[in-house]
Amino acid sequence: MDLQLTAEQQAFRAEVRAFIQERLPQDIRDRLRAGHPPRKEDTVRWQRILNERGWAAPHWPRRFGGAELGQAERLILMDELYRAPAPLPQVFNITMLGPVLMKFGTPQQCEHFLPKLASLDLWFCQGFSEPGSGSDLASLRTAARREGDHYIVTGQKIWTTTAHWADWTFALVRTDPEARKQEGISFLLIDLKSPGITIRPITSIDGEHHLNEVFFDEVRVPVANLVGQENKGWDCAKFLLGNERTGIANVGLCRERLDHARTVAERTPQGAGRLIDDPKLQAELATLDAEIRALEVTNWRFLLTPSAQQELPAFASVLKLKGVELQQDVNALLARIAGPSGLERRGSDDTAHGPLTPRYFYSRAASIYGGTSEVQKDILSKFILG
Length: 386
Prior knowledge:
This protein is α+β, with helices and mostly antiparallel strands and 386 residues long. The chain is 47% helix and 15% strand.
């Protein structure tokens, strides 16, 4: 399948690229290019700029502040954001919670929360995983008992990304301890400023603070913050986890990092010349370039070909597996090219290449989040081997 965009899609790509070139603050672009993750203020500042065009929530209906973009346009937008590079819209707000509220929330919840999600006036995190309840999410034990107009929540969440930045969390809690695992679970919106909540940092392998433990000790949550029906939160969770497929392969991210690898190799001396002149490196760059191109075409086929959509979830698993593999391969190449200067930590300005080795370390987590590689292979074995 050759990748040929329509004239309208090409015009939209040009529009997005021009908007990013004009409006993306240079300090944010430079920080991400060097390998630093975006800071909270970077994401907030840029998402509010995108929100002026409805591109903070591009797939949302216009009545909720979105742009109602189709699959192709959404993929183009994400691809250009990765390639800039620019921060992506905050995933928990836009990709996860927003669509859940539109489908399961009350009109009052939609009216109150959706504008704040798009503008990042509220930052949400996801309270799903628990100790001993990660891949088997339905075995969660955080409990919520109802007392009048409130739920009383007690328990613990773990691996909670950006909880230390967040204002609120959307959490799965067990409201019927006698029900079967997937039943008796409810979906609550919880203000993290509520008394009884403790957030403790988890430092990951890259030395950074992305993750947290979150403890709930008799936390009072208004019943009005229940999304959907009591004991039917598993329906919300399944919808949330299966709602967003665009960009699952992260092609734009792989492409931007490979382009940066070339740039770093061009400015890295080797002997009397430059590292980029090494034939072995040139061969590795060419191989990765071809594999990213193949993944890009496969991703478009998945999104736009009806027969591919019918092959779900096997097709999605292929994209996830290969996308993760390429992310890790490109980050490993960058770490090798940078050498000792790639060990820079965030906030240090005295080295040449930025924190490329810590970023390689953190890329190992891509095999776990969003569905582990082992689970993806199990899915493929069912559909391919029967």
